[in-house]
Amino acid sequence: MATNSRDLFSSKRRWILYLILIGVCFYFIAPLLWMLITSLKDNSQVFHDPPILIPNPIRLENFVVAMVKGNFGRYLLNTIFLSSAVIVGTLITCSIVAYGFSRLEWKGRDLVFMLVISTMLIPEHVTLVPLFVVFKKLGLVGGGFKGYLPLILPAWFARPFYIFMIRQFFMGIPKELSDAARIDGCSEFGILWRIIMPLSKPAMIAVALFSLIGTWNDFLAPLVYIQDEKYFTLSIGLAAFQGKYITQWNQVMAASTLMVLPILLVFLVAQKQFVQGISLTGLK
After folding, report:
1. Cα–Cα distance, 46 to 39 (Å, whole number)
2. What is the chain's Cα-based Rg?
3. What is the dihedral of CA 224, 228, 234, 238, to 10 degrees?
4. CB within 8 Å of 87: residues ≥ 6 apart
5. Which whole number is the average pLDDT over 62-89?
6. What is the pLDDT of residue 282?
7. What's the confidence (pLDDT) of residue 277?
8. Phi, psi of 240 (to 5 degrees)
9. Measured between alpha carbons, how far is 149 from 178 in angstroms, rounded to an integer?
């Protein structure tokens, strides 16, 4: 009898926990749902009182208008190109640097690593103007494709946060694997490419997702460096679209949905690897 009472109490507590989690999830997903609902409304229904939860009629043409009038097709391709270049540079350079900090023994390694990590304390806004001056003097600031160079090049010189994440994961891989490869005559680069990298796919996916989200949503840096409207990213294009058509909130929400949807789909596809990469980082 006591066992049944405990089981009943445990079941009730589990259901209460589920209800709380459902409420928290709804709290976070509600803005996305409202954005989607608004994107399907007629503009006269956007600020209707009481709010209209089910659009009638459903205006799918809002997405077409956003793609054509807002030129979001072009901005989407620009953002995909920029994000891809940043992700590739981040994974290559951060992996090499993290390997040097985690698998190689050299004098002053820990001190240099602490100095690299300490740069994370400097806000990006503080270095924005000095970096702009540097890129300007190097002739890397201007119209056209040049606007992408200041956004891509820093990723090819490694970033401290991603170095830290990958290093912590590398340190959890048994060193006996590297020693066995060295005995077989494998070089350090071969060990990194053939042994360490295949075992670090969860960490690589997590870093790639972080880099993708950061680049996809970045507004300030593209606004500073990109001067040609044809090369705008989605974040700048959305701001410009809102400025031109500020009364058309249904179209603005349609454009916002188009901007959020790719990131959401990528996260849903790679969710398992992403969570695994985060949870295993730093574990030995």
Report:
1. 9
2. 24
3. 90
4. 155, 208, 211, 212, 215
5. 88
6. 47
7. 62
8. -65, -35
9. 36
- Distance separating alpha carbons of residues 245 and 120, to the nearest angstrom: 38
| Dihedral (CA of 258, 263, 264, 269) sign | positive
Amino acid at 255: A
Dihedral sign for Cα atoms in the order 222, 223, 227, 230: positive
Copy the structure tokens of residue 129. 């103007």
Domain range annotation of the chain: 2-61, 71-280
Tokens of 273: 């690897």
**Look-up: residue for tokens 């830290």?**
164
Tokens at residue 53, please? 């939860």
Strands, E assignment, 146-279: none
**Conformation bin of residue 54: beta by default, left when phi > 0, alpha when psi is -120 to 50:** beta
Query: Does residue 150 have a cis bond before it (omega within 30 degrees)?
Result: no
Buried b (16+ CB within 10 A) or exposed e, 175-187: eeebeebeeeebe
CATH of domain 71-280: 1.10.3720.10
Are 146 and 140 in contact by the 8 Å Cβ rule? The answer is yes
State whether residue 219 is helix, strand or coil: coil
Q: Which amino acid is at 268?
A: L
Secondary structure letter of residue 119 according to DSSP: G
Which pLDDT score, from 0 to 100, does residue 111 have? 93
